[in-house]
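tool=predict chain=A
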Amino acid sequence: KNYAEPVKNTDASIIMPPNLEPFFEATNSSPISVKGIADPKVKVELFLNGDLTDNTETSENGGFEFNDILLKQGNNSLYAIVVSNNKYSDKSQTYSVFYKKSLPKLEILKPENDSKVTGDKKIVEIAGNTDTDSNITVNDHLIVVNSDGTFGYSYPLNDGDNLLKIVATDPAGNQTAVERNVNYSL
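tool=predict ok
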């Protein structure tokens, strides 16, 4: 497990907050599950964007899990508290998760599909634009995206047909792909 074990409570008046398992900062799927650990046999309440969304009792070893937590599009914050004998713990660490299900923009300005390149220079210029937070790969090679979302790259060609697979990937893992065929001959 990647989360910290709870500190044993030696003062009965202090309710220790739960520890949530760390999770992704961005996702393209909702609902999600949230797991953690707290003192055994206590009630844990989960808050999504400041609102109580669910509660559960921890197991004998202190583990708990919330399933089917529906995220809203955009930024979401999650934290939990323990409730025991009508007393409340401090909040757990707050996690932010960005939920996006729409595909990133990907516009290829050049090359045109089925382009032909001849001569001594065995390269083709690739240029386009995407969302500013997206990554671009060309045949799995990472390309720099400028702060305005534009990108450009000189791609080396082989003799004959070259298939270029250009993929935009946003932080949530959504992808948009475009293919271009470029033919090189001397």
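Residues 6-10 have pLDDT under 50 and may be disordered. The chain is about 0% helix and 55% strand.
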